[in-house]
Amino acid sequence: VQETRETVSVGFMSMQTLVLVTENHSQAGGESPPTVYARFLNMFSFVALDVFSAFPGSGCLFTGFIIRLLSITIAFILLFAVHGAVWFYKYKVQQEHNAWRILK
Prior knowledge:
- The protein is mainly alpha-helical.
- The chain has helices spanning 2-27, 35-42, 65-103.
- The longest helix is centred in the last third of the chain and has 39 residues, at 65-103.
- It is flat.
- The termini are far apart.
């Protein structure tokens, strides 16, 4: 079971890397891949995990490669910061309060 999980994880990350590198290359003005390769990668486009594609009208907000790259980077940093704050509150702050109540 562990070996299968690792194999699937490596396959998922490899396809995600290929899809993102190809997409970034095209957005940066690079040559598009051959049609056979592009069709193959389109089958795995769901692994790109593009947060902004879920919001209607978000395509109008980003008008270039640099702006899109900065927006996605800032969104990732904000998501990471919020996740860290929730973790800190859940595991550090709440545990300290529980320890104090036990001592009383």
